[in-house]
């Protein structure tokens, strides 16, 4: 899935009566699960002080990336799994007790 956010401030000025068109293009090149398109539009009254920098054009779609925190959690999970596996292997390699 890709995202589309107005840059630099994240808002677009839409005049009263102006038609807003949202378009979603589906591609079968990438495997999809779940929804094919999801939109949300937040509407607010104009602020008393209008800043022209806030009203920018929409940028081209950018690919979503996995947040760094997910990679950190995955790395620590793998490290813990390897440590537990090594600890269990060492415990089994020791001397066997003789039971009479």
Automatic annotation (TrEMBL):
Membrane spanning segments where? 69-87
- Source superkingdom: Eukaryota
Keyword set includes Transmembrane: yes
What Pfam families would the database entry show?
SURNod19 (PF07712)
Keywords (A to Z) from UniProt: Membrane, Transmembrane, Transmembrane helix
Q: What is this protein called?
A: Uncharacterized protein
Source organism per entry reads Ilex paraguariensis
């Amino acid at each position: 899935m890709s995202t589309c956010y107005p840059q630099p401030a994240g808002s677009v000025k839409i005049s009263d009566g102006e038609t807003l068109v949202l378009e979603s293009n589906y591609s079968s090149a990438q495997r999809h699960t779940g929804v094919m398109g999801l939109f949300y539009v937040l509407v607010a009254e104009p602020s008393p002080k209008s800043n022209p920098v806030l009203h920018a054009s929409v940028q081209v779609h950018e690919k979503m990336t996995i947040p760094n925190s997910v990679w950190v959690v995955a790395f620590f999970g793998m490290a813990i799994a390897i440590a537990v596996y090594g600890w269990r292997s060492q415990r089994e390699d020791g001397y066997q007790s003789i039971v009479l």
